[in-house]
């Protein structure tokens, strides 16, 4: 994977900075020299976002129709920029980057960590991209940027900024497919503490978390919906039907989730109720790859009995869980296998 950086801007971001104040400033590679060692740090950040597999640290954004963020990003993609030559198009690049800086600041609350916001125009294997990074120095007492010249000094950055394996928040537009990542969407986010609301929100995105989380949250929403609207618990057959439907479609999407939930819940199913349950779990846009689904599935029957089963066993007759006919609140669990070892507690 080859990442080449054409230009970058950087500025301080915290919830107290106001547009036009002395606390805010912006510098770029038009007026600051950046050596190869420093550029290599940012190459590694970008490469990490692109190549990161589908984990809980990854989310995919879908731009809202009423937001112009994608238009601004496309504008920056098309600019002719070069760190060796200060072209006039730097004006447009810096203006758009500054606008995004203040959109980010407006979304940051008083308890959000301050940091440095980088906007980068680059290429990946020749394909243009825009990357945005919010980086928080590991040593709060260390000045990462020279206060007089605002230079990016490698000796300071290398020791104060996070390692590429665990930097805080970043994104890449557009979303590139890689060997370990094939989710659909507009833009890819990577965050060390999982998905937060404010970082994707400043770009006007609805976000969906990694496939593993989305599978768990969607199945939990199906479970809650069936218990509430149909007054029935989720069965092992329902869980198997859920996984079969996703495999058949090749992806878990908003439409697939609704269609499958409707089949499981029955005529009582309500679209708005189901969407609300997903939203409460932090899911605004479902897009999940079955290859990264959980290996074990967990659900609750009768409101208090938690069942956890390896997914592959759902397709066999080794595990059968069913409510007994004519025996209210009585359940039967049958486990078959060559070697069963279990500690039981009264």
Short recap of the structure:
The protein has 346 residues and is of the alpha+beta class. 33% of the residues lie in helices and 23% in strands.
Low-confidence stretches: none
Query: Mean pLDDT, as a whole number?
Result: 82
Q: What is the alpha-carbon Rg in Å?
A: 24 Å
By helix and strand content, what is the structural category? alpha+beta
Largest sheet: 8 strands, antiparallel
End-to-end Cα distance, whole Å, is 57 Å
How are the strands ordered across the major sheet?
2-1-4-5-6-7-3-8
How many structural domains in the coordinates?
2
What is the approximate shape? Answer: elongated
Helical amount: 25-40%
Number of strands: 14
Topology pattern, helix = H, strand = E: EEHEHHEEHEEHEHHEHHEEEHEE
Content of β-strand: 15-25%
Continuous helix count: 10
Task: Kindly list the characteristics that best describe this protein.
single chain, 346 residues, alpha+beta, eight-stranded antiparallel β-sheet, two-stranded antiparallel sheet, 14 strands, Nucleoid-associated protein, coiled coil
List the topology elements.
Blueprint: E1 3-13, E2 27-28, H1 36-51, E3 58-63, H2 69-77, H3 90-107, E4 115-124, E5 127-135, H4 154-160, E6 169-173, E7 187-191, H5 198-201, E8 205-209, H6 211-230, H7 236-249, E9 252-253, H8 254-265, H9 271-280, E10 287-288, E11 296-301, E12 305-310, H10 311-314, E13 319-323, E14 331-335
Antiparallel strand pairs: 1-2, 1-4, 3-7, 3-8, 4-5, 5-6, 6-7, 9-10, 11-12, 13-14
């Amino acid at each position: 994977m080859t990442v080449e950086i054409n230009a970058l801007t950087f500025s301080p971001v915290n919830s107290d900075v106001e547009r036009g104040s002395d606390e805010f400033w912006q510098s770029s590679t038009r007026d600051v020299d950046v050596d190869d060692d420093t550029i290599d740090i940012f190459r590694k950040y970008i490469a990490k976002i692109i190549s990161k597999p589908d984990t809980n640290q990854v989310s995919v954004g879908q731009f809202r129709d009423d937001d112009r963020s994608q238009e601004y990003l496309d504008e920056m993609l098309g600019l002719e920029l070069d760190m060796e030559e200060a072209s006039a198009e730097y004006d447009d690049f810096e203006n758009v980057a500054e606008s995004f800086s203040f959109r980010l600041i407006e979304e940051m609350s008083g308890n959000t960590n301050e940091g440095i916001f980088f906007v980068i125009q680059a290429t990946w294997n020749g394909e243009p991209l825009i990357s945005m990074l919010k980086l928080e120095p590991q040593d709060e007492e260390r000045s990462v940027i020279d206060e007089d010249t605002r230079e990016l000094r490698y000796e300071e950055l290398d020791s104060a900024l996070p390692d590429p394996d665990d930097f805080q928040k970043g994104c890449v537009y557009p979303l590139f497919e890689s060997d370990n990542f094939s989710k659909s969407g507009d833009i890819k986010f990577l965050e060390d503490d999982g998905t937060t609301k404010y970082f994707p929100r400043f770009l006007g995105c609805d976000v969906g978390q990694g496939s593993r989380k989305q599978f768990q949250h969607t199945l939990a929403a199906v479970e809650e919906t069936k218990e509430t609207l149909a007054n029935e618990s989720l069965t092992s057959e329902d869980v198997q039907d859920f996984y079969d439907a996703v495999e058949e479609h090749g992806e878990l999407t908003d439409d697939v989730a609704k269609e499958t939930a409707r089949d499981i819940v029955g005529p009582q199913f309500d679209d708005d109720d189901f969407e609300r349950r997903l939203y409460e779990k932090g899911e605004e846009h479902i897009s999940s790859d079955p290859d990264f689904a959980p290996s074990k599935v967990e659900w609750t029957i009768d409101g208090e009995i938690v069942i956890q089963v390896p997914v592959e066993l759902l397709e066999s007759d080794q595990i059968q869980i069913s409510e007994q006919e004519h025996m209210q609140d009585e359940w039967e669990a049958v486990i078959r296998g060559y070697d069963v070892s279990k500690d039981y507690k009264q």
